[in-house]
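Throughout our pipeline, every protein is held as a single compact record rather than as scattered files. The record that follows is passed on verbatim for readers who wish to inspect the format:
___
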Amino acid sequence: MPQGSTEKTETISVFVDTPAWFLRPNNTDWRYATFLVPRTQEFTEGLRFHVQQSRREVLARNARFLLWKLRGKLGLEVVPQDWVSGGVDRHEMLRSQCQVVFSHTSFPANTGPLPVVWQNSLLDPEMQLAYGISAEALRSESAHKLPFFERAAVVQVSSENEARRLERQFPALKGKFQYVPFFQPGVCAVEEDAVRHKQADGGRLRVLFVGNEARRKGLDRLLEAWRRLPAAVRQRVELTCVTQFVDGPVEIPRDGLVRVYSGIAHVQVMELMATAHVFAMPSRFESYGFVYVEAMACGTIPVVPNWEVQRELVDEGCAGCITNGESAELSGLLQRLVEEPETRMRLALAARKRFCERYAPEVVAQRYRQVFRMAMEAGA
């Protein structure tokens, strides 16, 4: 704003359609909408949030979740809860004097004239099919969600790749799918000099894996790739694994170069991330991956699976490495990072730069403001 200007940034007021309390307090989607999205106002001007407090909605949402789980246990047909039309507490919404509604689960069908930003998507079909989800299930999901895509003022997805694919799938909705990366207010970039100093270290290559679900996140793939390294190269790689093996055990080599931590605090994970050269999580299924972004901020080279969203995170391989998950290919990638320090340096600096330009909290907060403004204009 020019010096001496009295112009004020227009404030956009957003009603957050979420229950104030949820049976699964660690649910990522619920915590994101309830606690993180409202914090965007700390990083950009002109945003105000009202998080729904209705006791009625708390009871309704939790009861619906329990019913959904019960139907699954009884072997009855289950329709994922985010396919089902929901609603907000209209009295609270109107009292809040908000201009736009942000919703992350059920589509709120009773918002009246207020435009809705619906955070939802159809995940990468190639990834879902590879993970064993049937083509019929994907068609059913698409059919269920289409009416809500049509009713939303904006459908928020996490990547430009997703937005383009959905526009190709639903050409009549062109312009409605808008990307906003996930907002991570606690993540900030380290200094560039710190990245240069770390990656110039001529000692062993420090590789980090983090994932409570060891198998889905690909720890077995990473360990097999490590075993395949030539003996002389393997001696130059330290592998640190942080996991709780919640989806089954993975055999860990009895080797002093492989360490495993379980149940450590996030601050300790970030200390490991700060010293690691490479972060490798070759997941079989990954809708986004907050931890890849944390790695980029630390100047730690992310090794990501070859899926739609993750390719975009690392700029199609310019700011990280993309793997198909096969042990031979992944082993070759690790060997290259051991033997080519100049490649390591280039990728690490590019990863940090991409975080600063695209995923830093202030950048994402401004993108949210743009999307809320788009929704208001679409609903006018």
About this structure: The chain has a mean pLDDT of 93.
